[in-house]
Every structure is written in structure tokens, then in C-alpha cells.
Amino acid sequence: MPASRHILVLYTGGTIGMQQSAEGLMPASGFADRLRARQAEHPGQDLPDWQFQELLPPIDSANMNQANWLAMADAIRSASARQGCAGVLVLHGTDTLAYSAAALSFLLLGLPTPVLMTGSMLPAGAPGSDAWDNLFGALRTLHHGVAPGVHLFFAGKLMHGARAGKLGTASLDAFAELPRRREGQRATDLPPHLDYRQSRQQVALAVQPLYPGIRAAQLRAVLDSGIRGLVLECYGSGTGPADDAELVAALQQAHDLGVVLVAISQCPQGHVDFGIYAAGGRLAACGLVSGGGMTREAALGKLFSLLGAGLSQQEVERWLALDLCGERAD
Asked: PROSITE patterns, from UniProt (predicted)?
């Protein structure tokens, strides 16, 4: 890929820029000066030219929400179209980094500019911190050339934005591209309303895991809360308590009222295939769409992008079943 020589560094907050307070680590502004000072202390790193933008206020990524995703997407579009940036590096907290990477993967479909996202497990300046290695490593990767699309860079690894996940908190090597089976027909042409230049609206969504003993009333409470889409985390290959007539009826009624239902597997290497077990087939008959091997983060981000574009239930279900950016296929 062509080298990216002018980069926007988009700072959203997160551990990488946090500073100690009486209450513990807190998001802090002023990270651009710290970045320039660190770079000046270590010249000759083969880095691109960069400019800095801070989304205010900087946040702990545990507080990340759809409005923040839309603000990031707006800033990235502006950097690509109006500021002439050849790449964007997003600095982000690790708690929801994989969620944001997945959401932006679908919000920025077709963007010609590569986007890398990174953060750190320890704040910049802390003993043994991974902050500068991740940040400068990501800048060098952009400088040498990265394919368009959204990527996650962490601990020296470049990962697909819609296939990565956070594995733990005890190691600096906290992220991996999850080894789920991937399949799905690739969408050949995207409709204009899914293009990265199109705006999105916030939309009420929910994620609900199935578990032994879940009651229909509990699921119905989620479905009746005003949501427009549900990511249902099923067992194994897409099964659940299909002999619970009330639970099945709750799903069917929600689907009949226009709620989009997408099924994913709870297993770290799981893949939904409704045709294997009768229990899975009964759930599919309620209107569930198979998410294949999509992660929770990818399924939620894709559902947000499709429903936020104003698509109908039928249109959303159609595009959920197709691969849009590599979330379902290599």
C-alpha cells in the first residue's frame, strides 16, 4: 500500500493519556504536547508528519456510546476529505476499543483512507508502559502503508477492525484477531446509503446472552424496551431453549413488530449454523438472522450502522447476511 505521510492523530481519551487524581486514573487533555516531547526525545523514528485533534471532553472508554462513534466518524471523514490526511490514528481506551473498531468498520465503508486504532494498558509515562510503543508503532505502520479500512494495532500486531477482541487485562498483549470460522458471500456493490459519506442516527439496541434458566419474561422485558435490534448470544452453533414456548413467542412477536434479531455464538471460536440442531432451527423460524462467526462487537456495530442508516427490517436482515468489510469472510 502507498505510504501515508500526513496523518491525523485523533485523541478520544483512554488509559494512554490518563493521569493520576485523588480518585484514581482519570482522562486528561494536553496529550499533544506530551506526544511531541516524547518524539523529540527519540528522533529518527521514521515517522510521518502528523497533526493532532482532540475530541472533547476526553473520556474513559468505559463511557463510550453511539454519539462518540458518530463524532469519531465525522472527524475521520473530515480528515480524509477536507484536511488532506492520508491516514488516521485513533487513540482510544482499551475497554471498548474492539467495539469502536467494529462500529467504525461499518460506519466508514468505502473510505479510501486507512484508519488505525490503538491505546495502551498502562498510561504514557508509567513504569513499563506500552503507550509509546503502541502509538509510535501504529504511526510507523501507517507511514509504511496500510490498506484502506479500519484496523486495530496493539502490541506490534495489525488486526482487522471487525474481527479483533480484548482477551484480558493482565498482559500488555491484550488483543487478538479472534479465530472464528468466517464465511459469507461478499457484497459486490454497496448501496449509497451505506457509504462512509452518509450520516447515521443513534438507535436503541441490546445484547442478550442466553443462559440456563432464562425466563421469557426477562427476554420480553428487553424486547419491549423500545429497542430496534437485538444481538442474541446463543449456545454453540446457534441453539437455545427452543422448547420454551413463551420465550419463542416473545422472539416471534418482537420480530413481527419490526425488531431485527441477529444470532451469534457465545463460544470464543463459535459459529452459528441453524441447520445442525432442531433447537437452532426453531429459533431461526422466529426470524433470527445468523451472524455466522461474527463477534459480539462486530454484530453490534453492524446492526448499529444498518439500522442507523434508516434501512427497513428486511433490508437490514439482507445486509446482515452478507459480508461487507471482511467481518464474515477473509
From this structure: ASN_GLN_ASE_1, ASN_GLN_ASE_2, ASN_GLN_ASE_3
